[in-house]
Amino acid sequence: MSLIYQISILTCLIFSIILLAGLVYASIIFYQEKENRAAFRALLLALLLPPIYFLSWFYNWEIVALILSADLVLMGILFFISFGKKAQITDDIPKHQIDERDIMFARNELKVNTDRYKEYYSKNPDKLDLDNGFRKEPGLTAEKSIFYNEVAYKAGNSSFFAVEQFKNSVDGPVHHSKSDISSSELSKFLKDWSKKLGALDVGITKLENYHFYSHKGRGEEYGNPIESVHSHAIAFTVEMSQEMVAAAPQSSIVMESAQQYLEAGRIAVQLAQFLRSMGFSARAHIDGNYQLVCPLVARDAGLGEIGRMGLLMTPKEGPRVRLGVVSTDFKLRTDTRIKDNSMLDFCLQCKKCAEVCPSKSISFDDPKLVNGIKRWQINSESCFTYWCKAGTDCGRCMACCPYSHPDNLLHNFIRFGIKKSSLFRMLAVHLDDFFYGRKPKSAELPSWIPNHEKAQK
């Protein structure tokens, strides 16, 4: 037997052991995730695939072992060699500022027949019929909504109430004496402290005009042009619980959204107050009280990319995060953003969020020109109308996104392959469908949350 055949046969033995161990490990991980379908299929593959390689070794099937070994080498090349990246899937720089008055949350706050209501729809008559659609529905956390759960909804509203208490703390007086701390030292401290406070990932970027809304759309400052002297921003993410998100669009999603908006608000208010105490102007941008478009700021700070569903996609948690931003006039040390085309290419191919969207608000199409730039655009009116019907902020796209899988060895291995190879990205889409299903069912509510029926008694 030649040396090359001996190596091929030995390779088959080693790979059969690795493959068996990997599939059993995957099955255990799936079981821990309460994904019984995926766990069963991984075990089934463990019974079918490794024996092919093992038998080639056991019976010294030289030609078969050589073919299988060559196949393994080819797979290794496809997996480890970077290629197939598309250069320009989406554009980065918006040509126009967004007016906060046009976003759905601002339009939701318009009271029928008030002066503000009449003024807005006189200028935007095309939006009136669209918005009357969501106004006919029960509304977020409303009693007659589809997923009404008294305990969960009131818990979520309690978190939103707590966020509201930060309203007068997002900005404030600046200490008269400026610290002489260096930019690099303060930037490092802010990042380290943010993580100590509970942030997941943190980045810093220089602010551009397109980061700011053109006008305020909510609260007492409604309609005021936004003018800021702030030149830099620190952006951070907080993680949303996999367990709470997995049951979306049921009531746990609005509980978790509210809780993480609260966590992001708490951290942002602390950072802003700290900066002001150091003698630098600073403002926290938190739920319901923004001057900035947080996803754009977070993207440019290197925290992720904006994907098909219009949310920030982070490398390890996908869209399963909430954002906080603090802007300041102190020239912080910025991070260099490296555009992750592999993530955008995966979004281009996956389309699972569009498949599962209850309101069909997410496009299956490639990015198109919107206001002069190439990007994905969701139907915000139909999306928000479903929120008002469901009573929750849905989150179905977030729950089903393959990037939302837990941050562990198995899923990080898949993410590594996705980042490296376009062929692996194609394979990963089909693997996710095979294990989890193309239209996976929503998980059950966490056991500690009273169920739908009990909550209404």
Question: Could you explain the architecture of this structure?
Answer:
The protein is of the alpha+beta class and about 450 residues long. It has two domains: about 1-80; about 100-400, no CATH class. It has 19 helices and eight strands. It has helices at about 5-30, 35-50, 50-60, 60-80, 105-110, 115-125, 130-135, 150-165, 185-195, 240-245, 250-275, 295-300, 340-350, 350-355, 380-390, 395-400, 410-420, 420-435, 450-455, and strands at about 200-205, 230-240, 280-285, 305, 310-315, 320-330, 370, 375. A hairpin with a 5-residue loop joins β4 and β5 (about 310-315). The longest helix is centred in the first third of the chain and has 30 residues, at about 5-30. The termini are far apart. This is 4Fe-4S dicluster domain-containing protein.
What is the percent of helical residues? Answer: 40-55%
Total domain units: 2
Q: Strands of the biggest beta sheet: in what spatial order?
A: 1-2-6-3
Q: Could you give the order of the helices and strands? A: HHHHHHHHHEEHHEHEEEHHEEHHHHH
Query: What is the number of helical segments per DSSP (H or I, 4+ residues)?
Result: 19
Q: What is the average of the pLDDT values?
A: 91
Low-confidence parts? 453-457
Query: Total strand count, please?
Result: 8
Q: In terms of structural class, how would the helical and strand content be classed?
A: alpha+beta
C-alpha end-to-end distance: 76 Å
Globular, elongated, flat, extended or rod-shaped: what is the shape? globular
Strand-residue proportion: 5-15%
Radius of gyration: 25 Å
Profile the largest sheet. 4 strands, antiparallel
Domain 4Fe-4S ferredoxin-type: 336-367
Transmembrane segments: 6-31, 38-57, 63-83
InterPro entries: 4Fe4S_Fe-S-bd, 4Fe4S_Fe_S_CS
Keywords: Iron, Iron-sulfur, Membrane, Metal-binding, Transmembrane, Transmembrane helix
